[in-house]
Model the fold of this input.
Amino acid sequence: MKTVLIGAGNVATQLGKALHEANYRIIQVYSRTEASASMLAARLGTTFTADPAAIADNADLYLFCVKDDAIVPILSAMPVGAGLYIHTAGSVPMGVFSERVERYGVLYPLQTFSKARDLSFREIPLLLEAAREEDAWILAALAGKLSDTVHFITSEKRKYLHLAAVFACNFTNHIYALAAEIVESEGMDWALLQPLISETAAKAMVLPPSDAQTGPAVRGDYEVMQKHLEWLKDDRTKDIYRMLSESIHANSLKERKG
Amino acid sequence: MKTVLIGAGNVATQLGKALHEANYRIIQVYSRTEASASMLAARLGTTFTADPAAIADNADLYLFCVKDDAIVPILSAMPVGAGLYIHTAGSVPMGVFSERVERYGVLYPLQTFSKARDLSFREIPLLLEAAREEDAWILAALAGKLSDTVHFITSEKRKYLHLAAVFACNFTNHIYALAAEIVESEGMDWALLQPLISETAAKAMVLPPSDAQTGPAVRGDYEVMQKHLEWLKDDRTKDIYRMLSESIHANSLKERKG
Done:
């Protein structure tokens, strides 16, 4: 399958490498930033362009790995052919393609990507959607070569997965940052918290998080919570402490009733 | 060193096993719940009591692994001897022992414990404090047999570590629970989020979390955030989304200025 990679960011880099290793023939990389396009093309041993009008129109597969609001402008500026057009975005409905092409779908990798960290795609859930049944088979075959976890879900469901991912990844990471700030403002090394962070994530692999909840809020230990609020210096962080503690408490009451 | 273990919960169980493996002689387990005391004593091949007045007064070391507010009542009800009295609590000052005994200190393991999950103590930071210098050496020798990360810190610093641990463990776990709720309320398996949770934690091992921040809030993508707020059903979860997004945004401005 002749494949064109549209984008040269974190997702494009990791997906491009995984496809390359699975012997897909990547015939071109497009990025509006020529340096990024050329760098990724060099890694994948292929050609590149920074001009959407120069995107090849004879590929079998177009993989859009760009920001949500870049999909439509690129699609409008590129020549379209008979290939299959796929995007990788959590929050963008599949229908974004429908005005311009007939064969389209989605391959959403539920993971956080960095250019510098190589990930194995085998453990990344790939959530698929296709407008036509015959393209669903093509997409499933592609996804199955990359990952052990492949599901078809609708655009409507996918948007909730993306929302949940903001909690599980972006918000979690910010909570880490707040914890690091507390430790560092007292002159200690935030690496002291790393084993705790690892173990908390490891527990979530074996136990539903609502069952694994520990700490003063779920115990209803108001004395400790009151002290913690006094020790926090930043008002916004105090609000976050208060609100998350209330939410933990409310959830534990629901659990008991349920 | 003849050691008495006071408590039979998660910390006592894991610490007791680690000491046992390091060839410490645990001569007794105390718990107010006889069944717990007897079960842990059996695992450690030792005796037990549920009566504080029956705690041995001739041990070299007493390790309190009980709830914060149980330390003083037990200490008041037990016969005291010439041993070293140590508690394992993050938020309790070392001075809690000072009215009743002369040799005392703290060994605070910065980790979350479950009875059922066996942990290697080698990677758990142990934070120590001792009232007398000669006891500091005893405590350091003990801690060094258990863990590769041993530091002395004051009660004042320790309380901030414990506060940071509430963020890094309890709040993080609750964020996982909220993410799981979003996914499950749409009829999907929350295990889809597990690879993302693992990778987010793994990134924090190699990159300061404030540098690793991704997502709509740090990008300032108000369109996506507005949609997410509409899709969330629960008002408290909406508030948490809004507040954490604001905090992420505020931190990213600080970073840029800093």
Observations:
- The CA atoms of residues 183 and 189 of chain A lie 7 Å apart.
- Chain A touches chain B through 90 residues (CB under 8 Å).
- The mean pLDDT of chain A is 95.
- The longest strand of chain A covers residues 25-30.
